[in-house]
Amino acid sequence: MKRVLGVVGALVIGMAGLAGAQESMGFLRSPVFVFQPGLVRSFSEGDGFDFNARFVTAIPTSIPRTTLVAIVQWTPFADEDGDDNLENAPGFVYGPVVNLINTNAISFDIDGLFAYAPGCTGSGSSYCHRFLFEGDLFLKIGSMMGMGTQWNSLSLYALVAYIMTEVPDGAETKDRTVLLTGLSLPLAPWKK
Hints:
Structural class: mainly beta
Distance between the termini: 41 Å
Number of domains: 1
CATH architecture: Beta Barrel
Shape: globular
Number of strands: 9
CATH class: Mainly Beta
Oligomer: single chain
Helix content: under 10%
Low-confidence stretches: 1-23
CATH topology: Porin
Order of helices and strands: HHEEEEEEEHEHE
């Protein structure tokens, strides 16, 4: 459950500003690529933190403050969970992200995302789709410190995800909720 919930989206901070600065190019704007190493933890009893590798492609749209994301994420060092389901199998997440707050210091987004990942109820190691809601908070350390243009988008993140579908009957809120924290590193394009 932790791994599947951990395959949720994140928005590249400053995306709303970047989208507004780009020339009119139709509905989709130029994509931004981000590496987000960090930790993931389910609120289920007995679950600890695992290293989480995330690669995000964020595509700003012509809709103000709205970005589409596509994410590949996995926990490469996680142990098997005992039911022939590897926690370190990759998951894929996609969907829209809406920026609610964007200042020089913080950014806050809400997401309605689809996760395609293994570990669904009664399915062993097969993949299935889940729908989830997420709140994303970014501390924009790059812009706060006035870093050069290449590192202006550097940030710390904390994401809380809540799975809505494909959960065991009677699952408690804590079993559906996951925390992701880490560092958001811009990969491309570099600003000039």
